[in-house]
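Running this now, will post back.
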Amino acid sequence: MKHTFFIKDWLNSFLSLLFPHCCVVCGRPLAKGEECLCIMCNINLPRTNYHLRKDNPVERFFWGQIPLERATSFFFYRKGSDFRQILHQLKYGGKKEVGIIMGRYMAAELSDSGFFEGVDVIIPIPLHKKKQQIRGYNQSECIARGIAAVTGIT
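Update: finished.
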């Protein structure tokens, strides 16, 4: 069993030399334990911290449209920012794992604030049938799967 783990770890390390996993933001090779974002890009991610504010701009956007207890966004999307690559890779690059990983990052940070207290189910925003057919998946479902993996919420 130990030998199998050692061989698998060695093989993964060797393959990453030839085909390194790179940060979706800056393109640098990821270190062991990093997923999707390098540590510097994760630190510099322009977080909204809206989960810490009641009546934040995301919640206000939905007022009067749907019944809503709380809403947030994880980071700011700014045209021209390198961080836009996160969403571009998820939506247009076919990288579903980016959504799952970002969902896990988001859930880990939001859990400490009690954001998920009383939440019974996570429902991804439906995607138009044509877009889902073209893309092959719903990106908000990927994010929801990452959140569910951390929170244990269905």
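The chain has a mean pLDDT of 88. More later if anyone needs it.
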